[in-house]
Amino acid sequence: MSDTSIKMVHGTALTDAQKKDLLNRLARVEGQIRGVQKLIANAAVPADCDSVAQQLAAARKALDRAFITLLTDAIVTHSAAAATPEQALQSAQNLATLLDKFG
């Protein structure tokens, strides 16, 4: 997957640069998962499980990093877009709820 295969919508959720960074991160995770699938398909001896586990852990960490990047970017973008302290507080509360729900 490359970010050119997905049409980005311009909006206020994230900047185009933030979206591009996240899409690139997810493309790398997608490549890692494809690699894990090949490792599993080609596993022949018990030691191959170590390689699979290592690659799964790396993919999970990369996906977790993308999640943190999404939240960090959202905090920055939404805080900068707030016209009043009350709007900034509401954005922060919404993001805290999101983190509590999925974090």
Describe this structure in words.
- This protein is mainly α and 103 residues long.
- The chain is 77% helix and 0% strand.
- It has three helices and no strands.
- Helix 1 packs antiparallel against helix 2.
- The chain is elongated.
- The model has no long low-confidence stretch (mean pLDDT 88).
Task: Looking at this protein, list some descriptive labels.
103 residues; mainly alpha; 3 helices; elongated
Radius of gyration equals: 18 Å
The main pleated sheet reads as: none
How large is the count of helical segments?
A: 3
How many strands in all?
0
Q: Stretches where pLDDT falls below 50 for ≥5 residues?
A: none
What order do the helices and strands follow?
A: HHH
Helix content class: over 70%
- Kindly report how far apart the N and C termini lie: 26 Å
Give the structural class: mainly alpha
Percent of residues in beta strands?
Answer: under 5%
Principal-axis shape:
elongated
- Average pLDDT confidence is 88
List the SSEs and their pairings.
Blueprint: H1 16-42, H2 48-81, H3 85-102
Helix pairs in contact: 1-2, 2-3
Give a quick precis of the structure.
By secondary structure, the chain is mostly helical. Helix content is 77%, strand content 0%. The mean pLDDT is 88.
